[in-house]
């Protein structure tokens, strides 16, 4: 009898801890309160226990665009948020830095990626330059806003 109750309590506790540590991982994105270069943007996200957004599907692209629009910082006609991809390690080979995965999905603007000194991936709204919430490779030192995402951390589950 007591054993059954304690097993039940154990399950309740596990579910509760799982909710606490992992569920918020699904409510996703946050835009930094200031602009910075790509590296500072990445560090900012990690300090928030998040990472620069990995956008590997149209669904995620749309979600990130929605979040970026909601920040209401694009009315001047220029707004950019850093995504978590770069080809700094090998030119032309864009990689999601936090997973090492190659870019399969992408939503490049016209004529992008243009290469040269431009190695960090940004989602732009810049209609004068024909960016309508599309991607560009930009110099990594450009000051733009981080868009961070929550992600599930394996440690959450391994603890049990
Ligand atoms: C951007 O794209 C949207 C949807 O495709 C369109 O409705 C809008 O007019 C475009 N904006 C500009 C500035 O081109
Ligand atoms: Ca470019």
TrEMBL record:
Xref: SMART domains: CLECT (SM00034)
Alphabetical list of CDD domains matching this protein: CLECT
Domain C-type lectin: 24-149
Record's signal peptide: 1-25
Keyword terms of this UniProt record: Signal
Highest taxon above the source species: Eukaryota
Keyword Transmembrane helix on entry: no
Matches recorded under PANTHER family: MANNOSE, PHOSPHOLIPASE, LECTIN RECEPTOR RELATED
Name under which the protein is recorded: AAEL012353-PA
Organism: Aedes aegypti
């Amino acid at each position: 009898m007591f054993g059954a109750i304690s097993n039940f309590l154990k399950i309740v506790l596990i579910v509760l801890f799982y909710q606490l540590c992992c569920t918020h991982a699904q409510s996703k994105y946050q835009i930094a309160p200031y602009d910075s270069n790509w590296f500072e943007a990445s560090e900012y996200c990690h300090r928030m226990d998040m990472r620069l957004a990995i956008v590997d599907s149209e669904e995620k692209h749309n979600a990130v665009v929605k979040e970026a629009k909601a920040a209401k910082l694009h009315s001047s006609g220029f707004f950019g948020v850093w995504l978590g991809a770069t080809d700094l390690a090998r030119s032309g080979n864009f990689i999601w830095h936090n997973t090492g995965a190659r870019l399969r999905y992408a939503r490049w603007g016209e004529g992008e990626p243009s290469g040269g000194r431009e190695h960090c991936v940004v989602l732009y709204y810049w209609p004068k330059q024909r960016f309508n919430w599309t991607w560009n490779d930009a110099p990594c030192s450009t000051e733009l806003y981080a868009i961070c995402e929550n992600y599930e951390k394996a440690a959450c589950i391994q603890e049990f």
